[in-house]
Specification:
Elements lengths: L4 E11 L2 H12 L3 E2 L2 E8 L2 E11 L12 E7 L2 H10 L3 E9 L2 E7 L5 E7 L1
Parallel strand pairs: 1-4, 5-8
Antiparallel strand pairs: 1-5, 2-3, 3-4, 6-7, 7-8
């Protein structure tokens, strides 16, 4: 079935000192990190994927509401199909969509008001 989550694309958290917090995770969990965060290669029934763990500035607008401390990114196999299904179910879909050489992104809002990122890799 196309139009579903096939893995986690990323887990993002806010911090008033993101470099310190990122380094804490690297040190204590031996994360394979660079300036963009920690990257984990994985395989699932959707093929090869990558999961990112990254720490953002506390005042970042990337998560939407400043009260949202974390954001999940789901890797999806067909972004348009997922969005069509969510729209039909009455889920709030944010109007901004982005496309890069590594994939397409869209955002939705869960029932608690949390912004959720969807990513269809190339």
């Amino acid at each position: 079935m196309a139009g579903r989550a096939v893995g986690f694309g990323g887990i993002f958290i806010r911090s008033s000192d993101p470099e310190r917090l990122q380094q804490w995770y690297v040190e204590h969990f031996s994360l394979p990190a660079d300036e963009a965060g920690a990257h984990f290669d994985c395989r699932d029934d959707g093929g090869h994927g990558r999961t990112v763990f990254a720490v953002f500035e506390a005042d970042s607008d990337y998560f939407g509401s400043r009260e949202q401390a974390t954001m999940i990114n789901f890797r999806v196999d067909d972004l348009d199909a997922v969005l069509d299904r969510l729209k039909a179910a009455g889920v709030e879909i944010l109007p901004d969509r982005q496309s890069y050489d590594f994939g397409k992104f869209a955002w939705v809002v869960d029932p608690d008001g949390n912004r959720v990122e969807l990513w269809e890799p190339v």
